[in-house]
Amino acid sequence: MSRAWQPVLCEAGHPERPGAILWAGERLRVIEYGRRWEADDGLHMLVRVMDDRTLELRRHGDDWSARIVSAPPQHV
What is the pLDDT of residues 42-67, one digit of tens each? Predict the structure, then answer.
């Protein structure tokens, strides 16, 4: 399971609360929003997507990136 930041596209929903994430050719619907915080490198938030992975999203300007925080066994 890679924990490196990867570029993503975010769609739908509020600009700071995406409804779905396009990542590596896969559309992942966000089903739950968690903690949010500001850091030197932008806005960060935790989200859970439809396959139960938890991702950390980072927004810096108009650019979004994501990394996996946790995943169920079938994704490890």
Answer: 999 999 999 999 999 999 988 999 99
Q: How many CB atoms lie within 10 A of CB 51?
A: 13
> 54 in helix, strand or coil?
strand
The residue type at 9: L
**Residues 73, 58, 39, CA angle at the centre, nearest 5°?**
120
In single-letter form, the type of residue at position 15 comes to P
Per-residue DSSP letter, 53: -
Task: Tally DSSP H helices, then E strands, for the chain.
Answer: 0, 6
Q: Look up residue 18 and give its two tokens.
A: 């995406």
